Amino acid sequence: MNSYxxxxxxxxxxxxxxxxxxxxVTYKKTRSTADFFLGGRSVGPWFTxxxxxxxxxxxxxxxxxxxxxYFTGLQEAFWTATGLLVGTYLNWLFVAKRMRKYTxxxxxxxxxxxxxxxxxHDKTKVLQTISSIFILxxxxxxxxxxxxxxxxxFSSVFGMNHYVALLLGVAVILGYTLLGxxxxxxxTDFMQGMLMFIALVAxxxxxxxxxxxxxxxxxxxxxxxAQFVNPFVAEEGSSYGFLDILSALSWGLGYFGMPHILIxxxxxxxxxxxxxxxxxxxxxxxxxxAAALVVGxxxxxxxxxxVYESQSAAEAVFIASMQKIFPTFIAGFxxxxxxxxxxxxxxxxxxxxxxxxxxxxxxxxxxxxATDKETLxxxxxxxxxxxxxxxxxxxxxxxxxxxxxxxxxxxxxxxxGPVILASLFWRRASKNGAIAAMISGGVTVxxxxxxxGGLFNVYELLPGFIIASLFMIVFSLLxxxxxxxxxxxxxxxxxxxx
Length: 498
What we know:
By secondary structure, this protein is mostly helical. Helices cover 77% and strands 0% of the residues.
């Protein structure tokens, strides 16, 4: 091992050791499924905000988004980031407080399927089953993207075999998630969110400075095409019109249906702290995404003579920039930000997916008499099983992190977004409407993804969200004898003081 790899390995080892130590510390505090899945609803505003954003952005922010900006310019990357920024704000503004209040009111629900079942008074538990299955399927895909980012990181930095790199990253994520559950995830997410933020901002500012400042940087990027300095201009010979912009902006709709983000709202200590969390989250996400875009486009000039020939390869632009800028140990520590991004999302997804099986399938249907201790054990076993499946999906080193996240994001946004919004804001929303919305949204995303050309080039989340919303409205209104007890329950919720 050369001196560079030795020093970088030391930085990685220190960071990974710290993450695992957090798992051991929080293990002692995790005594029940409520602790394992929701941290006992005791998380403060700073930890809630940074955990929500770190688990949201994942390796997509540090690898996927800069890779798209480097390879195609600002159009798709800029408008996607703008949509996500708006979606983040609206989710915190309208959903966060109501989500926490209603999940407590609905028999202290600690998972999304359990909340929907209690909200719509579904005694058949069909909602619980369908939503759990969708969560398991799409989170396996989503988790694979985090594992893939870890593997690409280790491969790029150490020249490590893709499969060995994949297993190494998975081992650490699996370790602290199994030990500490939600408290470990939130604590590590807080640290990872800070590291991601500092690494992105520092790399962006220094890269621009080394190119001669903002003016010289823009001049040099213009040589590669106007699309690298202006998000309204498309690559020569192509067009980026209204439908393309609308498609990219529609990424923001996904927030309303992301289970791993929604549970952050459910876990915060008090509704009075949500406003502070929202401010912290918006500052973090605004600055971090702007820095990610800068790192991507600036890399075109900054990394010369290195040129990436594919979008998948370009996802290493952040890694290469840091290695060029910082001394070995600092670069190694900052490279942990990519590992942090991947870990902060994968751990959250593993936790939500395991809760979908252990609480909403195993305890609800397979073994209703299961004790809390038994359900907790099943949760940990489920984490391992999901991890194994996700590993197989992450085996292909040529896969694009951006594309994998895009598909899973669309699935969750279309399946759960309209249902969550209706459950929180519409008194007349019904169980049948929720079932119809979830199924129609999921089917639309899967089918739309297989089509191409013209209107079908629009991001599948947008048509999926629209169709699911229509099904929610129509099937709810078609019920001739709605549940009056459900209406009374909703009215009681709306009168709860903050």
